[in-house]
Amino acid sequence: MAKTVPVREAILSANDQIAVLNRTKFDEAGVFGVNLMASPGAGKTSLISATVEALKGQMRIAYIDGDIATTIDADRIAALGIPAVQINTGGQCHLDAVMVQSALPQISYTDLDLLIIENVGNLVCPTSFRLGIHKNVLIASIPEGDDKPYKYPAMYQGVDAILLNKMDVISAFDFKMDYFKSGVEILNPGLSFFPVSCKTGEGMDRWVDWVKTEVSAYKKIGGGEYDLR
Amino acid sequence: MAKTVPVREAILSANDQIAVLNRTKFDEAGVFGVNLMASPGAGKTSLISATVEALKGQMRIAYIDGDIATTIDADRIAALGIPAVQINTGGQCHLDAVMVQSALPQISYTDLDLLIIENVGNLVCPTSFRLGIHKNVLIASIPEGDDKPYKYPAMYQGVDAILLNKMDVISAFDFKMDYFKSGVEILNPGLSFFPVSCKTGEGMDRWVDWVKTEVSAYKKIGGGEYDLR
Question: For A122, A173, B154, B215, which has the most beta carbons within 10 A of its beta carbon?
C-alpha cells in the first residue's frame, strides 16, 4: 500500500515556510520586525515618518513599503535618510513572505535594529499572510468610525498593538470611544492602545516609548519567544 | 490529433459567466443595479441610507450588503423599510457574482427598479470581480487623503461615478482638491463627480438626481447598452 502524507494544519503553508526563513534571518541578525497594517489613508506613512524622526539617532532603522502603484510613500520615508525599498505588489492586495524575502538584499538587513514594513492599505487580506516579523501593529483612525473592530475582527484579533490616529479631529466625528474600545477588548484583551495624532504629535511619545521598549526587550531575549507574524 | 480548445481572454471566467446570468435576470426584470465600493469607513452605508430615504417613495429599491462579519449595516438599511439582505462573505475580501446570485431569491428582485449592492470595504479586491450589475460607484472621503487615485488606480479606473464624502470636515485636513481631481481625470476622464457630506446633506441632491436619471435612462434603453460590471 502506498504511503500517504497526511495534510494537516500543522504542515506550514508555502508562505509560512518562507516567513520562517525570513524570521531566521532577522533573528540571526538581531533585527526586530514590525508589520504595520491599516485602511487606506489611516496614516501609516505619517506614523512611520514621525517614528523614524524620533528614533533614527538611537537605532538603525530600515523601511519596506508595499504599494499597488506609485513610490509616493517610499520616497517620503527615503527622504528621512534611512534605507527604504518599495515593493510594487502588481495589483496584489497584501504583502507576502516572498515579497519581503525579495526586498531584504536591498536594505542591508544585517546592519539593522528595527525593520518597519508598511503593508498594503487593506483591513482584510494582509491578516492571512505572515511575513516573518515579530509584531503586527494596526493603525485605525477616527474618521473610519467606531464600529471597525466589530466589522473587521480578524484584523483586530491578529495585532499586538493598535494606534488610533487623527485624534485631533475627534470632535468633528460621532466617534464613541467606549464602543470602539469595548470591541477591541472583546477581541484582543489587554492590547496596547495608543490614541495619537500624527499631525499634532499628540500621544506619539507613548508610542515611540513602546517601540523602544520592544526593541530593547527583543535584543535581550532574542527571537525564540515571539510568535511568527 | 486531439482537438484543442484555445484558452483566450475572450472566454469568460467562471465568475463572469455567473455575472452574465445575474445580469440577464436583472435586465429581464428591468432592475438597474449599482455596486458601491469604498475603503472601510468612507460612508457607504450612510450614503445608501440617505439615498434610500430620498428615493423610496419614487421607486422600488432593495439592498444587498457584503460584510465580513456582523449585520450592523444591513440592519440599518432594513430599518428604512426596504428589502435588505446581508451576505456574510466568511472572511472574503470582496463580493463575487455567486454571492449576489445566492442573495437574489431573498429580495424579490423581479419587483424592483433599483438594486444597491454594498461591497466589502476594500479599495483593491472588489475591482476584480464583476457582479452582473450596470454601474460601479466609488465613495472616496476627505480623511483618506488626496493621493488615493494615484495609489489605487484600478479602483478609480473601473468606476462610473465617484462621490467624495465628508466634505463638511475638509478644513480640518490637508486635502488638495486639484491634486485629487487631476488623478481622477487622468485615470477616468469626464467621470461624474459628486462632492458630498452624508452628515450635513451637502451635495446629496446632485447625486440623487444622477441616480434618478440613470434609472430612467435604463428603463428606456434597456440593458443591452451597458458594460458588464
Answer: A122
Say whether A150 and B91 touch across the interface (CB within 8 A).
no
Cβ-Cβ contacts under 8 Å, A123 against chain B:
40, 121-122
Q: What is the pLDDT of residues A67-119, one digit of tens each?
A: 988 889 999 999 999 999 999 888 889 999 999 999 999 999 999 999 999 99
Helices and strands (H, E) in chain B, number of each type: 8, 7
Q: Could B153 and A68 be called an inter-chain contact, meaning their C-beta atoms sit closer than 8 Å?
A: yes
Q: Is the ipTM of this complex over 0.85?
A: yes
Q: Could you give the CA distance from residue A87 to residue B203 in angstroms, rounded to a whole number? A: 38
Task: Name the average pLDDT for chain B.
Answer: 94
Hey, of B47, B73, B86, B144, which one would you mutate to test binding to chain A, going by the most A CBs within 10 A of its CB? Answer: B144
Q: How far apart (Å, rounded) are the C-alpha atoms in residues B223 and B229?
A: 12
B103 touches chain A (CB under 8 A): no
Q: Which residues of chain A have a pLDDT value below 70? A: 1-10
| A93·B91 Cβ contact <8 A | no
DSSP assignment of B158-187 equals: S-SEEEEE-GGGGGGS---HHHHHHHHHHH
Task: Quote the pLDDT of residue A70.
Answer: 86
Candidates B40, B121, B151; nearest CB to A69: B151
Q: H/E/C letters for each residue in A96-158?
A: CHHHHHHHHHHCCHHHCCEEEEECCCCCCHHHHCCCCCCEEEEEEEHHHCCCHHHHCHHHHHC
The three-state secondary structure class of B38 is strand
**pLDDT confidence of residue B3:** 64
